[in-house]
Amino acid sequence: MATTIDEELSQMERDIRQLKIEYDQFFGGGRKRPPTEIEWRIEQVVKRHGERAGELKFGQRFRLNNLTQTYAKYKDIFRKKTVMKEEGRSQRHYGAAAKAIEAERAKAHAETHTAVAEVPAPSTAASKRAAASAAAEPVAFRVVCADPERETENVDRLFQAFVKAKTQAGEETTKLSQAGFKEFVRKKTKDLQEKQNCKNVEYVVEVVQGQVKLKALVKS
Fold first, then answer.
1. Domain ranges of the chain
2. How much of the chain, in percent, has pLDDT values that exceed 90?
3. How far apart are CA 61 and CA 53, in angstroms?
4. pLDDT 10s digits, 49-108
5. Does residue 17 sit in helix, strand or coil?
6. Distance CA 126, CA 183 (A)
């Protein structure tokens, strides 16, 4: 069965997440070899759609650009850690790596569900440290749009929050344009309104474990 561009981009996003997990295992001593097969799959998607960027819709190009930047950032980190490992300058802490892997799995599970679980109050020193770390994440920026063409102030605020979050996270922002962003929000809002039969769309800019996410949620 033929795979659509959106499906390929979704698979690329999953592959990037899995790549980080398996590299954590590799650096922690849980794997003998780096996950080169996943890297190859991601590289193929980047190459294939990079050569045909003109055929992509604006939203697809926007998504591909974000995924490519995230992959490039991770790849640079993995390269440096690999050099350190080969030179014997890295220490193996498999327990810490395992905790990181579990955190990634929990994140992946949370992203597939819209329900928010209530977190119990911390009762141990470890849980208190975890709560403090979570509290350190920037508060998500939210804005609701029904007609982006008329609600220009809301769209401008959303764009500024998105750029600010990416800047603070150390992500590339030079290729972002306010005009292109407005067009993306306009099309995304219209698309969700037609497909989901809703009036309002809530846009959320949040930082999850150092990575900026822009989500569009259906509102009544």
1. 1-113, 128-220
2. 27
3. 7
4. 877 777 888 888 899 989 999 999 998 998 888 888 777 765 444 455 555 555 665 665
5. helix
6. 45
Encoded tokens for 163: 């750029």
3-state SS, 43-100, equals HHHHHHHHHCHHHCCHHHHHHHHHHHHHHHHHHHHHHHHHHHHHCCCCCCCHHHHHHH
Which of 45-49, 95-99, 141-145, 167-171 has the weakest average pLDDT? 95-99
DSSP 212: E
- Per residue in 171-218, pLDDT tens? 888 888 888 899 999 999 998 888 888 889 999 999 887 888 998 898
Please enumerate in sequence order all residues whose Cβ is within 8 A of that of 155, keeping only pairs 6 or more positions apart, or say none: 143, 145, 148, 181, 182, 185
Cα 90 to the chain's mean position, in Å?
A: 27
Q: Is residue 101 classed as helix, strand or coil in its secondary structure?
A: helix
DSSP-assigned letters across all residues of 182-193: HHHHHHHHHHHH
Neighbour-count burial of 53, counting CB atoms closer than 10 A to its CB (0-12 exposed, 13-18 middle, 19+ buried): exposed
> In 149-171, which positions are buried (b, 16+ CB within 10 angstroms) versus exposed (e)?
eebeebbeebbebbbebbeeeeb
Task: Supply 62's token pair.
Answer: 């926007």
According to DSSP, residue 146 is labeled S
Candidate from 28-37, 86-95, 111-120, 209-218 with smallest mean pLDDT: 111-120
